[in-house]
Description:
Its EC number is 2.7.13.3. The chain is of the alpha+beta class and 676 residues long. The chain has three domains: 10-35 and 204-426; 42-202, Jelly Rolls, CATH 2.60.120.260; 520-675, Histidine kinase-like ATPase, C-terminal domain (Heat Shock Protein 90). Helix content is 52%, strand content 19%. The strands form five sheets. Strands 2, 3, 4, 5, 6, 7, 9, 10, 11, 12 and 14 form an eleven-stranded mixed sheet that branches. It has a five-stranded mixed sheet with strand order 17-19-20-22-21. Strands 16-18-23 form a three-stranded antiparallel sheet. Helix 6 (272-284) runs antiparallel to helix 8. The longest helix has 79 residues, at 400-478.
Amino acid sequence: MINIALQASDQEKSIDEDxxxxxxxxxFIIFLLFGxxxxxxxxxxxxxGKVDLSKSDLTNDVIELRGNWNxxxxxxxxxxxxxxxxxxxxxxxxxxxxxxxxxxxxxxTYHLSIKLGENTPPLAISLPIINSAYSVWxxxxxxxxxxxxxxxxxxxxxxxxxxxIHLPDTSEINLLIHVxxxxxxxxxxxxxxxxxxxxxxxxxxxxxxxxxxFFAGSLFAIFVYQFILFVLxxxxxxxxxxxxxxxxxxxxxxxxxxxxFLLPDxxxxxxxxxxxxxxxxxxxxxGALVALYVYHLYHKVARKxxxxxxxxxxxxxxxxxxxxPQYTYGRLLDLAHAIIxxxxxxxxxxxxxxxxxxxxxxxxxxxxxxxATPFFLIEIFLNNTIRKVNITTSFTxxxxxxxxxxxxxxFQVYLLAQHYAKAFKTLSTINxxxxxxxxxxxxxxxxTSLVKDKLLSIISHDVKAxxxxxxxxxxxxxxxxLEAKEFKGLSENIEEELxxxxxxxxxxxxxxKIQLKGSAINNxxxxxxxxxxxxxxxxxSASEQKGIRFEYSLTSLIICWDKHILNMVLRNxxxxxxxxxxxxxxxxxxxxxxxxxxxxxxxxxxIGMDADFIRIVTQSNNVISQPGTKGEPGNGIGLSLCKEYLxxxxxxxxxxxxxxxxxxxxxxxxxxxxxx
Length: 676
């Protein structure tokens, strides 16, 4: 199933289940009425092979010819045979092996004398099921032959067919039927023949076949739908087993005695025995499929051993179907019914366990199985081979297993619809949230664009200033306005400014790479003391111009970290320390090591910052550029970007400051390897 977490409270779920239970009653009654159709079929008791219908109105009524027919075992009577009163009778409908304890395999003759009234409409006799080959003689004339009737099995050929035979316009009907059975597990007239208006019988036959084909088509469509769900859904095994159940019942409807015989009619070249193997093989594995469906539906609480037993039992029955003739494997039908009942019981127990485990959707499957089970029991009851059931009421039960399965599928479809509705609602909520996030990101992009514009403005100034200075000095020198000694003094300052400009460009390029493509952390071994001293040396000229001295005492320390990020952060912090220090001030640099944790401190004693300004420069996305103590312009990419660099590399930047007293920055990170 599509597992979507239910958001309702237990109380809400209980209310929903009560309402669902009330709706279930009406739903169940509708399908019950749908599965039990009222029929105006009457029945007339046949006594000693004779029935008198002379006073019956056959204009609209259909009469069942049930009772004691004349019966002659291992004897094909002459078509003109009319015994009168005979003591050799058998109960119809019923298999001769069960009603009179004859062998399953053999041949016999059925005989019935029918007396009709005058001025009757055109009449016909309907022969629904006779196993498994027969020829019908009416008043000595051959009226129908289904299959090949023979005394020898080598000449015998079975066939599946529902037959309607038109009767001659006479008041006396001598009906004689030769029946041979060398294949089926129950031989003879196993369903009750009927007599009535030919038009009415044909209408009923077409209606019955149409209804069967409707059920078969519906179940086959559901089979395709469930199989597609199995293919598309990663955890869709329950859909596979349910699709196979639908396929089996659909095929059975078009093969089974009393069904439409659509498949045998379409593929007449396929022998009857193969159709029967398909029918019984499908029925014999139903119990396993039912158990597998519920097992995979609630695999977290389902017990595995009963499923293994049911699957093995069904496999053995299926193997018997494959290797033995129908009259052998057909006798195992009641055992297959027992396995199906065991599968249903296992399903109830597993569903109850799932409900107790907190799966509130299990109650819907429980209701569906509960509503469908009576129809399955009716099917088993009507088709058992232990005790033959003859229904003699005016109510006739049609298609119980098909109706039962459709009832269950109705509940399953309701559950799927509920899942899809919740999924759609969840998707709508996600879309709203996603739209909100897109709007937020759009706003962030606008802000980022402003940051870039601000940053480019600062860069253009910081990069352009030393280049213009160099250009001016070179122009004066080339015009002879500067002596060599003066040029040398100026060139040293210009060289230092160009070094800082080059470092600034490197920082900008690295920042751009992070923003546009992302940047992988490149950890490598380097000497922390050398890195710090090289940055101090870079700012030697700037610090000497303001009379600022650096105080530090460092020892060699080999660490493994991202050198480029640490170098950019140190460069920016030292530039800020010089920029905001007073003339003649001091900048202290120190390194602390505790295990693999490294802390680099940079402290100045300049103008300092208040708490609000610290928050702005360390947390804002804006690039803050503020003049130094001697009006120096900004020459960095911002403390917030330094903090971002450190965070990406797994470090952090801390700041403490007091206004007019100075500022201390701490660079904290962990090195995977530290070597003093």
